[in-house]
């Protein structure tokens, strides 16, 4: 029930924000390497960032955006490719990344995800079960298509219980999913199996795979590099330390909020994860057993 209720709240908030925007919502494409593109929402919020791998061997889409904008997403992909999407990789279970599963699977698309992600969608009362992943993995899986080796690997207990990231080593690109929110506070879904420590560990793993030339696709926010990811890790570690000092001093959640230990990071606040919300997440994480 926790997964179901969270999905409803998250999707409602994001959709309310998305459709309050002026103008039409669309995907903007940026080529990162031959046959590999990042798709980022514009004119509103169609979902988290996508990646599209194209070529003669087949088409792979990473994440699919919201259900409410899935028709636009499908039409966009059809305009950009010569055939149907062969594989759709879900980086985690939230609706702003899995919303196009069912429309895509009406064609010849196979949805691929971590075992835990499929379990989360099975428990989600709001999710259309016709979009359940058909192919799952426990640790990793690699796609060998179009001259690329797309290494899909599990990141445990980070943003959710079933996160995956994708590494394209030949072209030095990482798709981080929601283990990386660029330039804003992250959403760490404690009710969905995520954890602050797991989030930090996952980001550190990604850092270890990056160099100064790596292009990093965050789940949300603009295209990033290693310095951007390092800044996100440093912020979260320091934010945790600041809240922990007050918890260790015996302060209650209300007292910690009154002290506003994360005020130095107010510029990271956004519609869904404010400074107060980030403080609450850290306090809850530090005080739960």
CATH class categorisation: Alpha Beta
CA-based shape: globular
**How many separate helices?**
9
Distance between the termini: 21 Å
- pLDDT under 50 segments (min length 5)? 1-9, 11-23
Mean pLDDT: 93
What does this structure look like?
There is one protein chain. The protein contains nine helices and twelve strands. The chain has 289 residues and is α/β, with parallel strands linked by helices. The chain has a single domain (2-226), classed as Metallo-beta-lactamase, Chain A (4-Layer Sandwich), CATH 3.60.15.10. The strands form two sheets. It has a seven-stranded mixed sheet. The protein has a five-stranded mixed sheet with strand order 8-9-10-11-12, covered by helices on one side. It is globular, with a radius of gyration of 18 Å. The two termini are 21 Å apart. Residues 1-9 and 11-23 have low confidence and may be disordered.
Quick summary:
With 289 residues, the chain is an alpha/beta fold. It has helices at residues 2-18, 70-80, 95-98, 101-105, 115-123, 196-208, 226-248, 253-259, 275-287, and strands spanning 26-33, 36-42, 50-53, 60-62, 87-89, 110-114, 135-137, 140-145, 148-155, 163-168, 173-181, 215-220.
Which terms summarize this structure?
289 residues, alpha/beta, Metallo-beta-lactamase, Chain A, 7-stranded mixed sheet, 5-stranded mixed sheet, 12 strands, 24% strand, disordered N terminus
């Amino acid at each position: 029930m926790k997964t179901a209720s969270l999905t409803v709240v998250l999707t409602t908030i994001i959709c309310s924000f998305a459709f309050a925007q002026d103008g039409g919502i669309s995907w903007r494409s940026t080529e990162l390497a031959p046959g590999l593109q990042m798709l980022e929402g514009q004119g509103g919020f169609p979902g988290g960032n996508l990646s599209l791998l194209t070529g003669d061997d087949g088409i792979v889409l990473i994440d699919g955006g919201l259900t409410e904008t899935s028709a636009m997403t499908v039409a966009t992909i059809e305009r950009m490719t010569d055939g149907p999407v062969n594989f759709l990789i879900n980086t985690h279970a939230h609706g702003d990344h899995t919303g196009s599963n069912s429309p895509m699977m009406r064609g010849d698309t196979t949805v691929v995800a971590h075992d835990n992600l499929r379990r989360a969608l099975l428990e989600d009362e709001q999710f259309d079960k016709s979009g359940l992943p058909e192919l799952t993995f426990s640790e990793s899986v690699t796609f060998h298509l179009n001259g690329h080796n797309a290494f899909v690997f599990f990141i445990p207990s980070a943003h959710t219980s079933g996160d995956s990231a994708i590494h394209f080593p030949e072209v030095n690109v990482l798709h981080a999913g929601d283990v990386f929110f660029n330039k804003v506070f992250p959403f760490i879904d404690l009710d969905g199996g995520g954890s602050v420590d797991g989030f930090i560990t996952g980001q550190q793993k990604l850092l270890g795979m990056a160099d100064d030339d790596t292009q990093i696709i965050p789940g949300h926010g603009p295209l990033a590099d290693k310095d951007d990811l390092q800044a996100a890790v440093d912020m979260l570690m320091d934010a945790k330390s600041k809240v922990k000092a007050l918890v260790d001093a015996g302060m209650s959640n209300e007292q910690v909020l009154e002290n506003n230990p994360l005020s130095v990071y107010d510029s990271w606040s956004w519609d869904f994860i404010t400074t107060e919300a980030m403080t609450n997440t850290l306090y809850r994480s530090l005080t739960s057993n």
